[in-house]
Structures are given as C-alpha cells and as structure tokens.
Design goal:
alpha/beta; 4-stranded antiparallel sheet; 25 helices; elongated; homodimer
C-alpha cells in the first residue's frame, strides 16, 4: 500500500472554522529548539521538565500563549518516519450467551463507557450458537501525521478494532500482534503515550471550556511544569481545537445552555489530548454531529495528526468533505477487511472488482452500500475479502520504509524533545516504559485539584443544593408542626419514638436524591481514570471532603427546625448532640448512597435499591419491633441496620435524663384497660397499690423515667456516644467500600 | 417555479431495499373500479363503506392481500392535479423569556413530543431581548406525488415550518395562510386527512412489526372495513415500507433485540399512514439513521407520495442519493427562505448568485455551508434572501396549473374513491369536514383493542411482573419471619400495629416501581391520540382493566405469605378481608402512580415525588400519631392519607373480634412501671384492684379486647367495610384525575 498522506486531491476548496482562519502548524517549518533534541544513540536526553523549561526560556515567559504546540522537529518530512503502528492478523472471538433480558429502566448502562457489547451479534441473525468472530485476521498500519479511519456498517467490528488497538481487550482473548516501530506495545507504555476518546461527552456541565481544559492540564501535566506553561498549553489547545470563541462558555446540559454539540465533542477530545499523546484513538468522534460540526472535528483531528500523532478513528458515514481529510481507510464487514487503502484508490479498486463507482456518487456511500448488498447475497463478501487480500501489492514486513525507523525508545525521546507527550518525565532508563511516570501529580495535589473542580461545578448549580435543602426544610416543618410540643405522657413517649424513627429515615432518604449527581460524576471519573488522570484514592478522598460543608448546613437546618418545636430535651447540650447525630446520619447516608453509585450504574435501579434497603433498615432499627423481641435469626440485620445507631443515639439523648419524668401518678393507667376509669377512682387505686407494694405512690410521684423507657425499648446495648461514633464509622466504612467498588468496577476492558 | 416532480435526472443508478425488488404502484395503470368514482359535479359519492365493499366484491374476498393500496385512479397523470397545498407569508414569532434552569434529572422531557422549544433561541446569541422571529414571511407549495424537503442548519426554523403547516401552532400566533386546493384548511379536516410523524419512535417494544401495524389498523380504520381488508391493508403497507423480512420480528428495546433503527423508523411511519393520509408531515425522519437506512426511509416516502400523497419533511443532512429523491426544497436560514426550488435548479441559482458550486461537491452540503458562512458575515443572508425573492419567476396565484384544480371536497372524494384515506366514512354533506368522522371506531372497540394490545405487550415482558412479584414475596417473607406468630400481649399489639403500617406502606411503594412503564406507555399514547387514533377515555378504561389481573395475583401472594405466618385473626373470613384490603390498596396505589405518570413527565422526578408523598401518607396515617392527637391544622392531611384507610381496615379486621383477648390478668402491667414487679405480687395487686373497682379480675380475666385497642388507636370513625370501599373509591378517583391530566396535558401545540 502506497503512502497517501500527501495526496490532497480530495481537499475541498474552502475551509472555515467558526469564521476564523485556520492556522496550521507546519511540521516543515524549523524552530530554534535544535539544541534541545537529544542524541538518540547514547540516550542522553534531558528530562521533560528541563526541556520545557529551556523552551520557556527561549520563548520568554511573558509571551506564553500559542507556543507550546509549535515546538516542531527540525528535520524535513522526508527523514525516517518517527512512528509506525502495525497490527497483524488481529483475531478476536467471543462465546455467545443468551442475553439476560431486563426491563429497560433497570438495565446497566455499560455501553456509555465504551467497552460496548458485542457489535456483530446485534445485527446478525443468531445462526452460530457458540462462537462469534468479531475480528477476523485484520492487518494494517497507521503512521504519524495521518488519519486512519475504520469504516463499516453498525456491527461490522469498527469499535472492536479500535478497542483491540487501544488495548481495551483482555490479553488472552485477542490473537495477533500490535507493534509500534516494530517493537511490541506494552500495555503500560501504551496507556501513557496514547489517548482514547469515547463516543460520549462526559464533562462537568457547569465548567467553562477553558476551565475544563485547565483542570485536565492540572491532572495530566507534571507538577514540574509551571502554572503559566500549563495555561499556555491550554490556550494553544483552544486554538488548535477552534474553540477560541467558546472558551468562556460553560459546557452546559439539558437545563443550562452551553456550547454546541460539535464544540462539546472538541472539548472532549481536548481533555484527552492535553498531554499531546503520540497515538490518539477515537470511537465515532463525529456521531450525532451535523455535517459542518463533524467536518470541523475531523479537521481538528487532521491538525493533531499533523502535529506528529497517529490518529485512528472509527467513522460511520463520512461526508464528502471528511473523506478528503482521511489518509487511510479500512472497510470492515462482519469482522473482515474488505478494503484497505487510501480514499483515492477506492474507485480503481472497485472498478477492478467489477463494480465501478458511478461518477458523481459519494464513493464511501457506494462502497458501504455495495458491501451491505454483498452481505445479503448468498456468497457474502468472501469474493471481496479475497480480492482485497490479493490486491495488497506489498507484504507489510518488507516495507522499505520500515528500514529507516528509529527504535521505539529513541522515537519517543525524539518526540518528547519536539514537545510531544507533555505528561511524562523523561529519564535515562533504557526501558521505554519507565521514561514516563504513571501519574503526573502527587496524591495531595490531585485531591486539591479534584476538590476545587467539584466545588466550582457544584457552586454553579445552586438549584441542586436548593432542592435538597427544600426537601429537608419541608419535612422538618411538617414534623415540627405535627409533633408540636409533645407532652410527657405515655402517648407522648410513643410519639417521640415515632418522631425519631421518622426523622432518621427521612435523613437517609434525602441522601438518595444525590444519586443521579453521583452517577453522572462517576462517568467522568471512569473516563478520566481510564488513562491515569489521577488516583482513585484521590477521587474518593476529595469526594468525601467536598460533601461535608453541605451536610453541616443541611443537618443544622433540620435540627434547628425540629428540636425546639417538638420540645426535645437536653437544652443546648442536647441540641448539639441531636445536631451531631443528624450530621453523622447524613454522613453515613451519603457514604452509603455514594457506595451504591459505585456499584449500580443505572439511576432508577439505584433509587429502587436505596429505597428498599432503607425501608428494611427502618424495619429492623428497633422501632417497629424492639431488640429483645426480634427473632434470633434476624438479629444480625438489626445490627447492620444503619438506622439503628442514630435512632438509638437520639433516643438516649432524649431519655437519659434520670430526673425527668414521663409518667406521673395516675398517668400510669394511660394506655391500659384502666384508662377509662374516672380520675378519682384512679387516685384511689394508686393508694391501694401503694399499700400493697409498700411504696408511697401519689398523683405526682414519678413512675416512669427516661431510663425506664430506654429499658422498655431495648436501647441498652450502646451508650449514646458509641451510637454516634458507630454511625460515623459506618460512613467511613462505606467510603472504603466505594473505593474498592471503583477499583473493581472500572476495568474498562472487554473479556 | 416550474414543476419538477418528473425531473428524474438525480436518480441514482441502483436501488435495493432489503434485497427485494421494489414494486412500484404505478398511478397510470388503469383499474376496474371506474364505476366507483363519483361525479364531482353533483357530489353524489357512495360512502367509503360502500366503496370498499364493492371493491372487495370485485377483487373477491379470497384474495385479500396486496390489493387495497393498488386501487389507483383511472385518469392519466396529466389531468388536473388533485391536491396542491399552498402556504403564503407564514410568519411566527415568540416572546423570549429567561429559561428556568433545573438540574438535569428533574427536567421535563417535553421535547420528546415534537412540540419542541424555540429552535432559533438555541443557536443564536441572545441579542434581541424581546421578540424572536422564528418564521419570516415563508411562502411555497407542495403537490401530491412529490416530496417537499425543508433544509437548514439546526435552529433555522425547519421544525417550526413543519409545525406551522401541520397546524401544530396555536391559531393566534401564526400569521399568513395555508390553503389546500385554494380553500383554507380547517383544523379538524387537516387532522383527519393528514398524518404527522414525530422524530422519536414511540412504539410498544414487545409487539412485532406486523402486530404494531395491525393494531394501528384496528384503531384508525373504520369498523365497516372487514378484518380481512384491514389485514390486506397491513400486508400492503408492509411491502410498501419494505418491511417484509422484519414483519415477524418484535420492535425491541435496550433489553430485547428487535428490528434495526431504520426499520423501526419505517414502522413508525407506517403506524401513522395506516389510513393512507393525503398529507404526510415528517420531522427529521432520517435523523439518527445511517446513510443506507436513511435512503430507504426516503425511498419509502417517495413511494407514499407517488401513491397520491403530499409528503413534507424536514431533513438535516441529506446524502447525495436522498437528494435524488426530493422534488422540491426549501432552504431556511434564521426563519427566512434562502432558496426554494428543485434540487436541479440549485447549481444555476448559486452560480447566478456568484457562488458556483464546484463540480463533484455535494450541492446541499455546499449550500448549507455557504448559508452558514453568510450568517456569520456582517451582511448576513440578506442578499441571498433578496436574490431568492427576485428569482421567483411567477407570482403564485396566477399559476396556470391552479385553474384546473378540483374543489377541495371533490378532490377528497375523488381521492377516497381511489382508495386513499381509509379512515373516514363518506357522506353527502356539503361540508368537507364532515365527510370524515373524528374517530374510526366506537368506544368499546377501542377499549377492547387497547386492552388486547397492552396484554400482548405485557405478556412478552414477564420479567417486569417478575420483579414486582419478587419484591412483594421478599418483603412478605421478611415480614412473615420478622413478625412470626405474634403473641397476644401488649407488646404483640404494638408489633401488630407496626406490621400493618409497614405492610400497607410496602404495597404503595411497590406500585411506584411501575412508574417507568406507565411513562413509556404515555408517550405512545400522546403520539396516537394526537391524531385521533382513539379516545382518551378508552385508554383510561383499558389501562384500568388491564392492571387488575396482576394486582389480584400480587395481593394474593402477599396475603398468603403473611396472614398465617404472622398469626392474624379471623380465619378464612379474616383472610379474605385482608386479601381484599390489600387488593384495594394495590388498586388505589396503582391508580395514584398512574395519575402521577400523567402529571410528571420525568421518571426520577416522579419517583422522588411518589416516595415523598407516600412517606407523608404514612406519617399521617394514624400509626405514628393517633387521630385524636393529630394537631387540628393537620387533620385534613390525615383524611387524605391514602394509607389511613387500608391501615384502619386491616386493624379492624384484626381487632374487631370482641371475644378475643389481648391482655389478660397480670399482662395488664406490661409496658407500665409495674412490669418489673414479681408475678406473685402482680396477682396480689390484681386482687386489690378487683376489690377497689368492685369487679372480679383474676389472672385469666380479659382486661383488653380488640375493641379497646381500636379505641386507643383512634380507629373509630369508619367501619372496616367502609375503609375498604373508600380505598377502592380513591382508586377510581385517581383514575378520573388521570383522565383529566391526559385531557389537559396532551395539548400538542406551540403557543
């Protein structure tokens, strides 16, 4: 296959991109950074930090913008190609199983995360019952400076091929080899020098384009790079992506007007290429965009390729103008290559195959339709597959281009010295993997940046917090008026118990409202950690820290609304314990919901599960049935009931004052069969009892103190402070579980 | 503007549609139904029923398939055009308001229903603060046999123009006129002779393609048409839509494999054109489809047009081959016409305007890009708008074609006699509106068909019912083991109360799980009733009937699991009342959730609201705080609490046996301060009491019967049967509210 990267015959005559002229970064233009390139033979390269510093000095720190990207190589284009990604005989098959059928609203949305379900299975009839071949002996190569596009109908294996190249398929399942400059690609190295852009735009809706990219820069660029360098990189990227006009606009979502779909897609790409990767994979980057936006996205990809990257993408239906930007194409049909070559070779290929493309017709449309037609015919695409194989004039490994290639390590070093791959720090280790570190920043920096981002995003959506506060205040108001100034009578005791049980449950239920937000954030998290933007532990810690201020506020609002209105006991000290327990309950509840958001991927399912579990927690809390009456085989559930601990804590806070009396004299007959007896008779009864028991009980004698009530309710196993600590501990426990759920749940690979 | 319907120069050389040859319905081919055409001058047309019967006789009832559609006119194509839809100076503007910003998960999804938000506002900057002109003086015409496509960028007003023509904009707001054959189009007539296909495919996922179309036929074709005729119409439509291979496949959803996206779109179109409308409006029928599927959809539209309909659609990005199928195009830019004419006139138009379209370039892509470029330039598209106006060679009203047109009534009659518009029944009234009736079927037929469809769909998704049954059985099992064999002691009484309160709440909460299904169905309902497929009342009744069998089953499962295990009272009679009350609670709960699904459009919001309201219902039911202790200002909430009635019902069922004893002798001191006294002392106390009260109380004397407990709990205002009837009545009440919510909520028009 001849190189076609410089075949511009398909370029449409006009470009415009948000009406600003396109500034190309011409690789041929020499720059004054020659002194920075390292000697490929002895490996004596300066570190990336050093390199960037010297570049900065050369440019002068007062002119920081638009420079970082323009550090180009000083060699003319005809010298050995720095990077060639080759893949040979890739074959991947899966065992088909009967799909579990679940109702729509309860389905896991795994597909959002890119590792989608078997595509061929979706379109093909279920003729083969056991094994499905998703990729069948696919070979090809991609070079830096070029765009390789994978085309085909839905289910032809486009995304599977991208996943295979991006090392998103578990090692055992994929046969064949992928090499970069002739050397096998280690998973860890690939992760650092490449980026994978998912089909969905998973971004924080309330950050501006500039902020989004800046946060990405803070995560993925090393700390050795100064803040002004990072800003410069972001500004250069904004120009490269054609986002100058939208830089100060928020991303937006359904409820907030933001940037357009095409701009959002370009921001997504930007967040993934902030470190200027050597290989860029994209899964259908133009899906869902109109023709102009799609063209601009691919135009941006061309510019990225021309800055010295390999761009590999799947594309469904490229328009005429987009085809003009592609350098190589691979057409897939049911996992097999039916065409591989440049767009310009397409007409002679199909003409020779006996199906000439009519003039004036879009050649890819024609090709895709012809392939579809063949797929439906008895012989299938077999003839075309064979024809394509025989048509490859040169066996890959004898490619003369290959001879002059740099070794992988040297190529990476050379590329870094030209300003690529801003994320790693170079060192002189001979193992190319270790020339770049796994995370760009230390733990505490990640926590700080994550927290800052989360606070910024949350503060721009005050209505979310408003809704939660409103719910708390409404429930607080209803409870306060419903249980207004409870008296110290047997019925009042029962009502206090009811109030505490209901209040504690409400707190937990309110936490469930945050589930959709957590789930949305989780998708961003999955995207970012898939390529090591930050540690999972930083995320868990930052997530925990950020939630606390709002919990304090909500707890105070609830405690202040209800404590005095209901007439709870303990004065200021009692109030603060009540407030503290509510806060602990909010903390435990929010940790529980956070943990669930890490386990359950769908909002409706998560909400249903939370509501059901909380209902059972309430049932086993000791309110409906006291501990001493719970059947032995359910006692374990009583002890894992999250509601038990704050409930018993506030109960003890209310009733542990031994001087306070709840049943006095004749009130003792309330709620017993003797309640209906006239008071005079009750007093007489009291006297009789006194003489029988040998204790003097008058109308004012206290017969039931708080301690008696606690005894009756079986609240005897823990002190009130222990209840508080245990509630808080539950919160930490679920945060730790959340961390493990993220560790286990974010394996972003196919099996 | 010259007629271009017969300009086939753009036809691509090859067609294939699921690999079956296309069978065109040639309008020129005469048929043996000439005797059926009515005399346009005296209006003496037979009724549709008569017409169809005679056609049936002619064809013979034993050859029912593929005939209905082929009843073509006997006149050659050159005779007067039956239908010309003209629109003149359409102008529509809206007052802009600041959008309410709501968090994503709580937003109403009104957009799904087609009457979408102001499109220009979305893309334009907010320069004008008061009025936005969405359509600015748009004129044009569409003829039967042709496809009129409206093109433009997002926000150019495409959908608004379609809405304006389809009478989906409130009368006062839209200026200008729309006429059919020169006569103004009445709203009611338009609704009957036209169809509007929304962008979303709102179909029942578990029905096959054939079933979906057959149900549509049963709704929209008159009862006078025999079942075999309806079947024939469906079979003809399946062929016309190219769905023969998919006919027996279910539609499918995320959880069930079904037909492809393109096939689903064609089924959507099919359900709307089952009655063979004269005018067909489509909002972006190709959006979200790949190029081949999109082409096949437009190919189908061409066939529909050629069968004698006017097809008007908006389209975003037509491929080369699709352009070949279009007869007329209107390009919009910010609500103004920038081009109007045939695809073939596009190159000379732009050449004359000074921007010739380069050879080999897709002309619409070029035009759209040029328009976009002009929009960004200082002068805007003004020059192009003016150029387009001056370019219209003929003023519309002097169009010579117009002279030979039939009157609207005659044209409709003629069209019906040729087999179009299968839905109406003709009569000899001179008012064209009354030649077609509002609903095709009587009330009871609609109810029967709706119920049948709903049952079919539900039965194919047994997992949905399985999940609800599982939830009920798990909760039943937990309650049964938790409250296993409650004893008749004071604590046992309290636990019984807890059991009943928890059980009744569970029943209501379980109903909330059906919310997503109801919401999904509601979208289908909105689509179908928008064009009078059936009465809203039929839907409400059928919805109520269909839900009952599953409620009986769930109620029985819950009652049987818990009644004997907990040790409830009343034997078989008691069980049946318990079972009946649970069923009533399920009925009321499901009606309540159904009503909410009619008011709230978003699943998460609905679920949150249901959970919150049910929590308050439980709080006010009388369990947490008895009726006599509820503050006066909250008593009203106690009486509207849905949980109160079934809760009090089962309480009375349990405690109304006056011979049953719950507290006997010394048990009377349980839950009082005297509980801790030794039994011997208690017996002594009893004796003392006996003598004081003058009643003989021994260790076995009953001191508290069920009646006493009911008194204590304040359950005295209603008999148990009244509780049951009131619960059932609540169910009916919410069903009626549901009906009104549908009446008010389905106004599908812009203001």
């Amino acid at each position: 296959m001849a190189r076609v990267g410089t075949d511009y015959s398909f370029k449409p005559p006009r470009f415009f991109l948000d009406n600003q002229p396109l500034t190309f970064f011409d690789r041929r233009q020499p720059m004054e950074v020659e002194s920075l390139s390292c000697n490929p033979n002895n490996g004596a390269c300066p570190t990336l930090g050093e390199l960037l510093k010297r570049v900065g000095d050369a440019n002068g720190d007062d002119t920081p913008t638009h420079q970082v990207l323009e550090m180009e190589d000083s060699e003319p284009r005809s010298l050995p190609l720095p990077f060639v990604l080759s893949f040979t005989n890739l074959t991947y098959s899966v065992k088909t199983r009967r799909k579990m059928s679940f109702p729509t609203c309860f389905r896991w949305k795994n597909n959002r995360l890119g590792a989608s379900a078997d595509p061929v299975e979706q379109s093909e009839n279920n003729n083969y019952s056991n094994t499905k071949i998703l990729l069948n002996d696919i070979s090809g190569e991609a070079r830096d400076g070029e765009i390789l596009a994978v085309l085909g109908a839905s289910g032809s294996g486009k995304s599977t091929l991208i996943d295979a190249l991006a090392n998103r398929i578990a090692k055992g399942s994929l046969k064949g080899s992928t090499t970069l400059n002739g050397e096998p690609l280690e998973s860890r190295l690939l992760k650092v020098i490449s980026a994978y852009v998912m089909q969905d735009d998973l971004l924080f809706p309330m950050l501006t384009v500039e902020e989004t990219l800046m946060f990405s820069a803070e995560f993925r660029l090393p700390r050795s790079l100064s803040k002004s360098k990072k800003k410069a990189r972001v500004q250069a990227l904004i120009d490269q992506l054609g986002l100058r006009n939208a830089a100060k606009t928020v991303i937006g979502d359904e409820g907030h007007r933001g940037v357009s779909g095409g701009e959002r897609r370009r921001v997504s790409i930007g967040t993934d290429i902030i470190h200027d990767p050597i290989i860029l994979f994209l899964d259908e980057p133009t899906s869902g965009l109109d023709s102009t936006s799609a063209f601009m996205v691919v135009k941006v990809l061309q510019r990225i390729a021309q800055s010295g990257s390999i761009v590999i993408m799947s594309i469904h239906q490229p328009s005429y103008r987009i085809i003009g930007l592609l350098d190589r194409m691979i057409f897939l049909s049911r996992g097999q290559t039916v065409y591989s070559g440049s767009p310009s070779s397409l007409p002679p290929f199909f003409a020779e195959f006996g199906h000439p493309i009519p003039e004036n017709e879009n050649r890819t449309e024609f090709a895709l339709d012809l392939i579809r037609e063949l797929e439906g015919s008895p012989g299938g695409t077999k003839a075309l597959v064979e024809f394509n194989k025989s048509n490859r004039n040169l066996p890959r490994n004898d490619d003369p281009d290959r001879q002059g290639l740099l070794s992988l390590k040297d190529a990476i070093s050379a590329s870094i010295s030209r300003g690529k791959l801003v994320s790693g720090t170079t060192n002189n280790d001979s193992n190319p993997t270790s020339t770049v570190s796994t995370f760009a920043n230390p733990f505490w920096v990640e926590v700080a940046v994550l927290s800052r981002r989360s606070v910024t995003n949350t503060r721009r959506m005050p209505e979310l917090f408003g809704i939660r506060l409103g719910a708390i205040l409404v429930t607080g108001f209803i409870l306060a008026t419903m249980f207004y100034h409870l008296d110290n009578s047997p019925k009042g005791i029962q009502e206090r118990l009811g109030f505490f049980a209901f209040a504690m449950s409400t707190i937990f239920y309110t936490c469930a409202d945050a589930l959709p937000v957590f789930l949305q954030e989780r998708y961003v998290f999955m995207r970012e950690t898939a390529y090591n933007a930050y540690r999972r532990s930083s995320y868990v810690l930052s997530h925990s820290i950020v939630v606390i201020p709002s919990l304090i506020f909500l707890s105070f609002a609830f405690a202040a609304t209800t404590f005095w209105a209901v007439g709870l006991d303990g004065g200021a000290k009692g109030f603060f314990f009540f407030f503290g327990t509510i806060m602990a309950a909010f903390w435990a509840g929010s940790s529980f919901v956070t943990f669930l958001s890490g386990v359950v991927s769908h909002v409706m399912l998560g909400y249903t599960v939370v509501v059901a579990i909380l209902a059972y927690f309430l049932l086993f809390s000791g309110f409906f049935i006291t501990r001493d009456r719970i059947p032995v085989y359910w006692l374990w559930f009583h002890y894992i009931s999250l509601v038990k601990y704050p409930y018993e804590g506030v109960l003890q806070n209310e009733f542990d004052d031994s001087t306070k009396c709840f049943v006095r004299g004749v009130q003792m007959f309330d709620n017993t069969p003797l309640e209906v007896v006239p008071t005079a008779m009750k007093v007489k009864l009291l006297k009789t009892l006194s003489s029988s028991l040998g204790v003097n009980i008058t109308s004012t004698t206290c017969v039931t103190t708080g301690a008696d009530i606690l005894m009756q309710q079986g609240v005897t196993d823990l002190s009130k402070w222990n209840c508080l600590w245990i509630t808080i501990a539950w919160g930490f426990f679920f945060r730790i579980l959340f961390y493990f759920s993220l560790l286990l749940g974010s394996k972003n690979k196919r099996r």
